[in-house]
Design brief:
This is DNJC3 protein. By secondary structure, the chain is mostly helical. The chain contains 11 helices and no strands.
């Protein structure tokens, strides 16, 4: 304004100043809500700020943290992906995205994101440790699926048992392994074991279509047509 005073520009400048004061106030409230673990309130305040400050990587990372705490990991991924682009060498964002995908059971996307982290810093301890874990799990699952395609069901069962040992902490992998083992047992003419295992899976995921189909096949082998 000092370099080029005019009424219109003064009004615009005053509006922007008022807005910036308001955004700073919202920012303080958002941080306070986050510290008090009121993540829903923090998200609502950050939504308002990010509608104006679209390119603020740190605010996006903060909102992602809130989404994670609120049990909405897919929304967190979207903010973290933006933060990874907005901030140079943002290894932390790639690490978090990879971890979320891993926890959701998407090992292939997890592997892809953790590789991005290691491209930026090959000595990143957390990323390297996660990379080794995801790579091992990914290889076991790919190998098991290859055995299934070849009709080598015993080998596939053994490989999926290894998957459960490799990742005992994240339930989605155990459930998926059991679902695929049930498939192998059914195909391998072992209906009793297949029914037992598929029932276990269906207690956890009542609408798991694959488990329902494989259990139905196993019931047919046992001549249990009503079931």
């Amino acid at each position: 304004l000092k370099s080029n005073p005019s009424n219109n520009e003064e009004k615009e400048a005053q509006t922007q100043l008022t807005k910036s004061d308001e955004l700073q106030r919202l920012h303080s409230q958002a941080l306070s809500a986050y510290q008090q673990e009121d993540y829903e309130a923090a998200i609502s305040l950050l939504d308002e700020i990010l509608a104006v400050c679209v390119w603020d990587a740190e605010l996006r990372e903060l909102r992602a943290e809130c989404y994670i705490k609120e049990g909405e990991p897919s929304k967190a991924i979207s903010d973290l992906k933006a933060a990874a682009k907005l901030k140079n060498d943002n290894t932390e964002a790639f690490y978090k995205i990879s971890r979320i995908y891993y926890q959701l059971g998407d090992h292939e996307l997890s592997l892809s994101e953790v590789r991005e982290c290691l491209k930026l810093d090959q000595d990143h301890k957390q990323c390297f440790s996660l990379y080794k874990q995801v790579k091992k799990l990914n290889k076991q699952i790919e190998s098991a699926e290859e055995f299934i395609r070849e009709g080598r069901y015993e080998d596939a069962i053994s490989k999926y048992e290894s998957v459960m040992k490799t990742e005992p902490e994240v339930p989605v992998y155990s459930t998926r392994a059991k679902e695929r083992i049930c498939h192998c047992l059914s195909k391998n003419q072992q209906p009793t074991e297949a029914i037992k295992l598929c029932t276990e899976v269906l207690q956890l995921e009542p609408t798991n279509v694959n488990a329902l189909k494989d259990r139905a096949e196993a019931y047919l082998l046992e001549d249990l047509y009503e079931e």
